[in-house]
Design a protein that fits this description.
The structure is a single chain. The protein has one domain (34-241): Lysozyme (Orthogonal Bundle). By secondary structure, it is mainly alpha-helical. It starts with a helix and ends with a helix. Helix 10 packs across helix 11 (204-210). The chain has 12 helices and no strands.
């Protein structure tokens, strides 16, 4: 079997898996009203987006579809708690700054981004987008792993405008890495949301498998009942963006 034929068969298998997962997700999503399930937390997440129009403007300026970008991180806005965020940041950022992700790797900000996520994006951004015009707006990073660069990364992650930039970088890198299909917005959002939630460094087959896993919850401790992160992203898109 030729190498080219093997690659074609792998691609075909991925497309079949993605199609099956999307059918399963579509069926499981029927009857689930996430706005009702999450109640006030969902309303507060919507209110944040509606009262911060600069987010849509910023995404558009970076040539990102605002509906896509916001849908991907909307579940994180539901989960976000300002009090919990401050407690985690104050107690763990010193450990991370001094010793790195082996000692502390924690979610920061509205979009709940971790330092390890940001660091990986910084490395991929510099390698994936050498000639992209947006590269001029988001300059290359100092990738030395030391207390100074880790402290600077924490400062960026605590800045909402920088979280938008990291989101832009994520969407650009994922598009380049996985050749995302733009023909079906809901399939696109589901895959990218799974990559955001489960780890975009994973193989595409793993990301597709993770699309049907229910791991999302809003508490500190994992409850018996969890929900599907990509489903919530698609739900928000269908309710607010597809009109």
């Amino acid at each position: 079997m030729t190498k080219k034929l093997m690659c074609t068969q792998r691609l075909y298998s991925k497309l079949i898996i993605s199609f099956i997962v999307c059918i399963i997700a579509s069926c499981s999503n029927k009857g689930k009203d996430y706005k009702d399930i999450f109640g006030q937390k969902y309303i507060e997440a919507e209110r944040y987006i509606n009262s911060n129009k600069w987010i849509q403007d910023s995404l558009a300026r970076y040539e990102i579809d605002p509906s896509l970008g916001i849908s991907i991180v909307f579940p994180e806005l539901i989960r976000y708690s300002a009090i919990k965020d401050k407690i985690e940041t104050r107690s763990l950022e010193v450990l991370y700054t001094q010793y790195g992700t082996k000692y502390a790797d924690f979610s920061i900000g509205k979009f709940q981004m971790k330092p390890s996520f940001a660091y990986q994006l910084e490395k991929d951004w510099d390698s994936f987008y050498e000639r992209d015009p947006i590269k001029c707006q988001i300059k290359p990073f100092n990738l030395n792993d030391n207390p100074e660069t880790r402290r600077d990364r924490i400062i960026r992650l605590k800045d909402e405008k920088w979280q938008i930039r990291y989101l832009v970088m994520f969407l650009k890198v994922v598009e380049k890495k996985y050749k995302v299909n733009h023909c079906d917005p809901e399939m696109e959002i589901s895959f990218i949301a799974s990559a955001y939630n489960s780890g975009y460094s994973n193989d595409s087959i793993i990301i597709v498998k993770m699309e049907k896993q229910d791991f999302f919850h809003t508490g500190i401790l994992k409850p018996k009942k969890c929900y599907n992160y990509p489903e919530i992203s698609v739900y928000y898109y269908k309710k607010k963006c597809r009109k």
